[in-house]
């Protein structure tokens, strides 16, 4: 599959760009390599677990292809048959990948893609008695509708509502301000509708960061993130609803109070501001003091933390969102168990690496490798590969909290 995808990488990239369903081919190839290895090792390393059967993967209309593949590939690697219900933007590349997988030798019926414009189309498919597990990736609103529609069907449902999550971007006075400004600009303008970063800048460096950020953005040109086709689609849906007797309560966005976040004066205030949110997807911490970074990372209620960097990801990195951002763990070995069930021939085993829900913290650290003594405050990592070094610049450590 990796070879076939490499041959058609340009085609996949162009289709994703046209459909605005971001998924760089190198990232997709890395996902394929990681889960292909687990497909070969599953029987040897997980003998007490068996596939669930038929897994339904549902994506919202603004869900990217990469987010879908994070669900689809591990389900296939664990031996399940997968039905994918993509959103409008990710449907064409999903259909293309299904054809490429079939050309690479994937058995018929292992991967199926169903398309539809109905918001509850995924729930209608989930009502089939052959579906044994449903997993959703996208925005919170459609995830709630799916859970309500499938309630009482007797099928397990997991949700990863990562789109629209508000994540804290904490900058301490000991941080490299120029690097933090570059990361702010990168994170704001490269993630389309996916993550909203909330700046929590320590009071002593707030004016310096704001002035440099204003200077950096003064020469930038911003284009509209919404296409004309999307605008016409929304207007047509609203007009149709009004013609059928619906009352338009809010004509623009949900009622929100956008106001400046008060600058924290200490680590405890920064943590309090960061945790005062219904979301718990990720956080970015900027400081050159490693002890302060690790203490803050353990205190924020999120699934993954980037230190002196932002938006890093790797297939071996498990992400367990907190609060309203999700109810499952995706990525790594820990993310495989949602697509498995205990074998009936033996007593129910306990996954050796599966932490309690919301109890896994993944930390990415950019900079020189930290000395082992600086990690003594963290619990013993549960992962067999607790650290991942890339050119002595990026390290990863996992801890159950």
TrEMBL record:
One of its GO terms (molecular function) is oxidoreductase activity, acting on the aldehyde or oxo group of donors, NAD or NADP as acceptor. Transmembrane segments: none annotated. It holds the Pfam family Aldedh. It comes from the Eukaryota. Coiled coil: none annotated. Residues 373-401 are annotated as: Disordered. Residues 48-250, 265-341 form the Aldehyde dehydrogenase domain. PANTHER family: ALDEHYDE DEHYDROGENASE-RELATED (PTHR11699). This is Aldehyde dehydrogenase domain-containing protein.
